[in-house]
Amino acid sequence: MSLLRKGALALLSLFLGLACASGASAATASRIKDIASLQSGRDNQLIGYGLVVGLQGTGDSLRSSPFTEQSLRAMLQNLGISTQGGQSNAKNIAAVMVTATLPPFASPGSRIDATVSSLGDASSLRGGTLVMTSLTGADGQIYAVSQGSVIVSGFNAQGQAASVTEGVTTSGRVPNGAIIERELPSKFKDSVNLVLQLRNPDFTTAIRISETVNAYAGSRYGGPIAEARDSQEVVVQKPRQADLARLMAEIENLVVETDSPAKVVINERTGTIVIGAEVRVSKVAVSYGTLTVQVTETPQIIQPLPFSNGKTAVQPQTDILAQKDGGPIAIVDGPDLRTLVSGLNNIGVKPDGIIAILQGIKSAGALQAELVLQ
């Protein structure tokens, strides 16, 4: 077995072995605030159209991007500068789309980050400055105004015969560049109850959350206040004598034993395999082999005999080598995660082979888990 194969399998075994070191159960203790979010505390998306100026010749071509020239003329006219009858060939300006996320309970005057992405044919936004841009929500109202220097992580350099590019140069961020001008119309304390939304919907976890909250409320408020609606939502009724903010602060720090379904997540592009702790495999026999076909072209040049008036010709010659590597039949029986990983490693295949084996085990009906392909 090659060192690369051993290293990949050892890393897979170590990664998956850590998940089952504490036992076969997938339940882990987590705070409610880490596994659920408040429904009234949702984020809101903001969007706006603006201009980035101050680029070093890497902006939009005004002829190729007519909307950039129109935006430039409109901005200058708003500043009292007439641009009638003139044409600009400047390459230091770019039209961009500005996006931001309005956090819950944000108040006017606070700052959030903004993301800037090029709309035209600009090659780089590095060194540019975003001009004041209004950011609107889905209701068409302006909730923030963004302006500031654009930070671009990528770079590009080019000459007449070569160029080097690293990262994305047509997208950047304006840290703390958006100032919130309007708060959301709804207030937290206007709610009559709390709705907790699980980030990973699961009926078992939702029931455990309601039971944990009711056990706490029984001693604190004298009765149950939580009810699991479905696998994602848990409704907590506000007691009359309780303050809603204090109630949420008390509930979010309660510890709950979470549960998750058995899943195997496979990313065939990167060769990544993630196996959940509750995955079980019935006893199966597995044999893995690879077929390698090598085609080699070695054309030969044939010269004519002297004084024969012949022509030089090329005679093709193809060598095909087929090689099949097969391994012994191995028994894979995974009553727990550690045994499953050990059995897969004993077969002695690369991670891409393990992916094919897991897919075959699933097709045979021996994989007691959901197989997710990405």
TrEMBL record:
Major subcellular location class: other
Single GO BP term: bacterial-type flagellum-dependent cell motility
Pfam families in the record: FlgI
Database matches in HAMAP family: FlgI
Assigned protein family: Belongs to the FlgI family.
Protein function: Assembles around the rod to form the L-ring and probably protects the motor/basal body from shearing forces during rotation.
Name used for this protein in its record: Flagellar P-ring protein
Organism field: Ciceribacter lividus
